[in-house]
Write a structure and sequence with these properties.
The chain contains seven helices and eleven strands. It is α/β, with parallel strands linked by helices. It folds into two domains: 205 residues, Spore Coat Polysaccharide Biosynthesis Protein SpsA, Chain A (Alpha-Beta Complex); 52 residues, no CATH class. It has a seven-stranded mixed β-sheet, with helices on both faces. Helix 2 links the parallel strand 4 and strand 5. Helix 3 crosses helix 5 and helix 5 packs across helix 6. The longest helix has 13 residues.
Length: 272
């Protein structure tokens, strides 16, 4: 008997950065909500057995109305305060009824462009590993930054607060003047490193795991108050350092709807 394959759609975000006035997953684009577009995209994967949706508690009814139109959605459950909490609740829900070797693919509901090919690649990685993330090579140079010391100075010159006003203001070398920073520039930050670009990949979803592995990792991380994960691959890497996390080629087009400009792009890409 083949392993069961479950896609978990994490839809717990409240849409603040997207300026959606509510969960971006419930924004209508091209006649359907983003959540519906993502469910439909996942349903195109022939190997799929079921979908579990995790939604902010205040919007469960709306998500359940959507789910009722899709036979492969088996449940819609409330999420947690943070993304990691929602992932943990999802895998615990599955662990209560499915065997540990179940293949679980965790996916952002705000990534409606996922393809069957990407889902299949993530799933196939579980033939040789218990954890895998999708990612794409960075085409840009990535820099590491850290906040400048209080006051904006670095010891190389006066801080922003000490400098004179006007065009004669002096800025400590390597820092951004908090008061004079132009629009779009990050104040009070400085470059501290430039990692080799060939080693920099941009992580995406889906991320695939054997159910017993991701459940064990989340149970450990739930007690790790010093760690705030933003994806499930990092949960496994920190909680279970002896478990290799495979990296699978994702898709540059599999972008996430996060900001208002992403919604504008989605309206073009998902039109009709």
């Amino acid at each position: 008997m083949s392993d069961r394959r479950v896609v978990v759609l994490l839809a717990g975000g409240v849409g603040r950065r997207a300026g959606a006035g509510g969960p971006k997953q419930l924004v209508t684009v091209g006649g359907h909500t983003l959540l519906e577009h993502t469910i439909a995209a996942v349903e195109r994967w022939a190997a799929l057995d079921e979908i579990l949706v995790v939604m902010e508690a205040a919007h469960l009814d709306a998500a359940r109305c959507i789910a009722a139109r899709h036979s492969r959605v088996t449940a819609v459950i409330p999420g947690g305060a943070e993304r990691a909490d929602s992932s943990r609740l999802a895998v615990e829900h599955l662990a209560a009824r499915l065997p540990g070797r179940t293949r679980v693919l965790l996916h952002d509901a705000a990534r409606p462009y996922v393809t069957p090919a990407v889902l299949a690649r993530a799933d196939a990685a579980l033939d040789r590993a218990d954890a895998a993330v999708t990612a794409v090579p960075s085409v840009d140079t990535v820099i590491e930054v850290e906040a400048a010391p209080a006051g904006g100075g670095s010891g190389a010159g006066p801080s922003a607060g000490e400098a004179g006003a006007g065009d004669g203001r002096r800025i400590a070398a390597g820092t951004v003047d908090t008061d004079a920073a132009p629009a779009g520039q990050e104040p009070g930050r400085r470059l501290v490193g430039v990692p080799p670009r060939e080693r920099m990949w941009l992580v995406q979803t889906p991320q695939a795991f054997r159910l017993d592995t991701i459940v064990a990792a989340h149970r450990i991380i739930a007690r790790d108050v010093a760690f705030t994960p933003t994806d499930d691959g990092s949960v496994v890497r920190r909680a279970l350092p002896d478990v290799p996390v495979a990296v699978v080629l994702g898709d540059p087009a599999n972008t996430k709807v996060t900001r208002p400009e992403d919604l504008r792009v989605a309206r073009r890409r998902l039109a009709g």
